[in-house]
Specification:
alpha+beta; Ribosomal Protein L22, Chain A; 4 helices
Length: about 130
């Protein structure tokens, strides 16, 4: 077995600038409807969206792919379960790659301040 890990750090003001410049086009390209809905329901919306962005990047680092080929931002969905824990669901090209790597479940951890968000993704795979 092999432990896979990915980590990412996001500057929250950068995400806020992207929202100001590109509005709903940015939101719809990067975040699923459920991710947007969960972010709309909190007072720290920018931090929530930044955390989802960082988590998506961390998952791609875990997979070793980066953003390339047929990968779409929305192939990775990060929403909180009923306890508030971030959970990841893969679809499309990212799901195909994870399946090739024999990854069943990815665990996430997200932490933030007003200015920065860090996300860590881990998974176990068979070699």
């Amino acid at each position: 077995m092999k432990i896979l890990h990915g980590i990412d750090l996001v500057d929250c003001p950068r995400i806020e600038q992207m929202l100001q410049r590109h509005g709903s086009h940015f939101l719809d390209r990067v975040f699923t409807p459920d991710e947007q809905q969960q972010a709309d329901g909190v007072k720290n919306r920018i931090e929530k969206l930044s955390g989802r962005f960082a988590a998506k990047e961390a998952v791609l680092k875990l997979l070793g792919t980066g953003w390339r080929g047929k990968i779409a931002w929305t192939d990775i969905e990060v929403v909180n379960n009923h306890l508030g824990q971030p959970m990841v669901t893969l679809t499309g090209e990212v799901k195909r790659i994870a399946s090739e790597l024999k990854i069943g479940e990815i665990s996430l951890s997200i932490s933030h301040t007003a200015n920065f968000v860090m996300a860590s993704a881990t998974a176990i795979t068979e070699i």
